[in-house]
């Protein structure tokens, strides 16, 4: 967090910074007031001198610290002298770090205080790394470097990092980790890793990991069925929930399916509980080549036949036939069944199939993005079916365009 009372916000290489004002004192950056588990940590800070400073006059100009709780307990601190900023030319940033031990879970701040004696540049981002006990100085430096935004101007930087640096930095500033692994850009949030290869890979990050559209609370062992798993981000997020014992993901389009499988492979602790099906669900069985809209690489295509588009080989299966055994096996194990549905119009046929087979009564909750693709069909078509089977619904749909709703089975 930047304190605008002591300076002017700006960007350096796309990263949020503050240029402090001479004579203004206080914390230039503070926060983030987040809770962390106990352990050994290192945190990094970046500070630089503005314009040409007389480094022969060495004096205290800033202080870095780690504050616990209500700021009265300082876990680590260091004075910064003007001479400490000589490593880089004016206008660039120097790296500093503090190591500390958090004995028990606690809420932390990582702060840079300035005294106004000289104008400084202070970066908002302060990378934090959980360390193995007794980590060496080189290991600490490597851990902090791994948590910084990768350099898009490096000679071996992936093309996607170079092309999408602005969007990737925006996500990074919002808490999404960005790193390069084996020449690929990998994002990480909430313990889930996924590849970023094309712009559409970034399209759903905000909804899923920042807006928390699928942040479901679960108190019992659960089976999740993800209909329309796209590149697998929601599948992985739900699989990471401690109560989720199994996830079944359905994605009809082969290229999108492959992207989902690649993302799942990046998460070896989650992958064993995820079962993927390169199948479309509807209210009938059909195999063939279909003309579908070309919606780019996002995978947000519909299985509805249209008069123009691209030919795609699809395997369509009746939802009740495919999901019935999964649902019954989960219920037999005492597991709650939750469905996430986002399938570009097929939701109407899927709901009809599930209701006809009596399976709506075996499901405990729904998270549904529905689509205005058929005349006379909207969210009420789906909500009415759920109301008939004892669900309470929470509709977030706008007056125009597609919409979203949640539904949970009433305990009464």
* Rg over CA atoms: 26 Å
Shape: elongated
What is the end-to-end distance? 46 Å
Q: What is the domain tally?
A: 3
Count, helices: 9
Q: What this model shows, in words?
A:
- The structure is a single chain.
- With 412 residues, the protein is α+β, with helices and mostly antiparallel strands.
- The protein folds into three domains: 4-146, Jelly Rolls, CATH 2.60.120; 159-202, no CATH class; 211-409, Rossmann fold (3-Layer(aba) Sandwich), CATH 3.40.50.
- Helix content is 20%, strand content 37%.
- It contains nine helices and 24 strands.
- The chain has helices at residues 137-146, 159-163, 165-173, 205-210, 233-239, 254-265, 319-332, 347-356, 379-388, and strands at residues 7-12, 15-20, 26-29, 32-36, 39-49, 60-68, 73-81, 94-102, 106-114, 120-123, 128-131, 177-181, 184-189, 192-196, 222-227, 244-250, 274-277, 280-282, 286-292, 310-318, 336-342, 365-370, 391-395, 403-409.
- It has a seven-stranded mixed sheet with strand order 17-16-15-21-22-24-23, sandwiched between helices. Strands 1, 2, 5, 8, 10 and 11 form a six-stranded antiparallel sheet that branches. Strands 3, 4, 6, 7 and 9 form a five-stranded antiparallel sheet that branches.
- The longest helix has 14 residues, at 319-332.
- It is elongated, with a radius of gyration of 26 Å.
- The mean pLDDT is 90.
